[in-house]
Design brief:
It is a single chain. By secondary structure, this protein is α+β, with helices and mostly antiparallel strands. The protein contains four helices and twelve strands; from the N terminus they run αβββββαβααββββββ. It is globular and about 50 Å long. 30% of the residues are buried.
């Protein structure tokens, strides 16, 4: 991991200036692609729903995903060192709900949808819009989450009939319709 430098005279007392509720209300106005992040390894398959995913670099291909440390899949993703970010289409909101449910076992989660094994050994959703098969390169704990920087080793683009992407916006599912 690299050292983080606090630029521009950062003062940690600024952290109390915005309440968690105000921050969450602001973030509700920022749409995010809905994904199911999966892993597999010695501790079996695990996965969860995430919308905090973004591109970091194309050289080398790198993504960032934020994982709440209370998510049951959290320790297994870090132990396995691999993950797949499966981007969902508009008809997969039930799959998203299944993977975000704390009451569903991992067996129940993976019984939903069709899966195959990616290059890293992690589960790839057969009908995702796109799946990014990754190896973890860096991790950093920030607040309630772990920020994972992952190197993309394979990209599996879904079928040719492009469907609207499932997004999370204003605390509900929405969709992005391609032109």
């Amino acid at each position: 991991m690299t050292n983080v430098i606090a630029p521009f005279g950062y003062d940690s007392s600024d952290e109390a200036a915005v309440s968690a509720d105000l921050f969450r209300n602001g973030m509700a106005a920022l749409p995010g692609a809905v994904t199911v992040v999966t892993t597999d390894g010695p501790h079996g398959p695990h996965g969860f729903t995430a919308s905090a995913v973004c591109s970091v670099s194309d050289t080398p291909p790198t993504l960032l995903v934020c994982i709440n440390r209370t998510t049951s899949a959290h320790p297994y993703i870090l132990k396995h060192g691999v993950l797949v970010i499966n981007v969902l289409h508009e008809a997969q909101h039930e799959l998203s709900n299944t993977f975000s449910s704390r009451s569903r076992s991992m067996a129940e989660r993976f019984a939903t949808g069709k899966w195959h094994t990616g290059l890293t050994g992690a589960p790839v959703l057969d009908d995702a819009l796109v799946s990014f098969d990754c190896r973890i390169r860096e991790i950093r704990d920030v607040g309630t989450h772990t920020v994972v920087i992952a190197h993309v080793v394979d990209v599996i683009v879904g079928n040719d009939d492009v469907r609207p992407a499932l997004v999370w916006f204003n605390r509900q599912y929405s969709r992005v319709i391609p032109k």
